[in-house]
Amino acid sequence: MYSSVNNRQMVYIILIVMTTYDVQSIPYILSRTTGRGGWVSVILTSLVFALIAVFITKLNNMHQGKTLFDYSRDIGGRVFAWIFRGLYLAYYFIIFVYNFTQTNNLIKAEFLDKSPIWATSLAGMVVYGLIAYRGIRNIARMFEVIVPLFLLFFILASVLALSQGLIYNIFPFFEPHRITDYLVSTQNLIVPFSGASALFAIPFTSRNKKAPIWAFFGVIMVGLYYVLLFEGCIAVAGINSMMHYKTAVIEAFRLVDFPILDRVDVFYLTVGFSGLFMGISLSYAVLVDYLCRIFSKLSRLVITIIAGCVLYTVSLFLKGLSELNDPFRIVFSVVVVISSIMAPTVLFITAKIKSAVGKNNAG
Questions:
Q1: Residue pLDDT, tens place only, 130-162
Q2: Architecture of the domain spanning 7-343
Q3: For residues 46 and 50, what is the distance between their CA atoms, to the nearest angstrom?
Q4: At CA 309, angle to CA 304 and CA 313, rounded to 5?
Q5: Per-residue burial over 106-130, b = 16 or more CB atoms within 10 Å of its CB, e = otherwise
Q6: Domain segments of the chain: what residues?
Q7: How far is residue 284's CA from residue 278's CA, in Å, rounded to a whole number?
Q8: How far apart are CA 293 and CA 204, in angstroms?
Q9: For residues 50 and 195, is the Cβ–Cβ distance under 8 A?
């Protein structure tokens, strides 16, 4: 049986996991698709994923003491359960490889440009493995220290960027004729908002009764954070500049004057990496938890080591074959859509229908 987490830790998990994926590219994505009205797309997407988070937490509360691995069989039977187990194994495998590769590229570009990527990747994999081996609850405890510092810095840096930028850079704030663009652009924000499905790996108890409310507002907080980040970046750097940098947040923060620090971008990379580091560790831990349930005769240590070797090899393989990047991103996007939106919705609706039918039969 896994250890549960309290509602505060659950919100921290949502905040870290959702702000791990492509957060540095948010201004780049929005400036190229929606212009200055990108905040509308962010709010719309956050509402959708806040609802998904409610679905997941309600499912967990309906099956207290169990994880998706257990109650998916209760909902739809053996075949149904293995479909969803396989889906989320693939999801966390791809999530880890994607973020691990992105992080290694960023480390090489910003810090260790002369170090071989296989060496920095190996060092990172060892640390991620040690944390994943300790389990989700221990990671949640680490979040209680890291997340407040992470949020404090990012909010402060974004506010400084907004205050030091040119106010006319963020106007027009809303353009009615671009409503279609705002709606279409929500598809580009699916990856940054994905991650709430990590809650499927955490069994709930009676103390998580109000988890749906906490989860809903946790995702809304992520949306507001993205809006603040986006507005701060375009205020200080301009919308046209943000269109040309995939690591737009880093480029914008280089222009911010902080009262104490000379290089805000360097501090951002340090603090930002702590969040990214914890998000990657969590995806590794969830993957290990699922594998431990499937291969129950193997120890957690053995599974952690085997999984780490496979993840490390695949990450280096994809890094060395640039022609696979586009197909990988397509597969990644499809898996994210299915696992982050479609699967939780199907599970929730199916569980509700089964519960209603069961009550009618009992009556």
A1: 999 988 888 888 888 888 887 887 788 788 888
A2: Up-down Bundle (1.20)
A3: 6
A4: 145
A5: bbbeeeeeeeebeebbeebbeebbe
A6: 7-343
A7: 10
A8: 17
A9: no
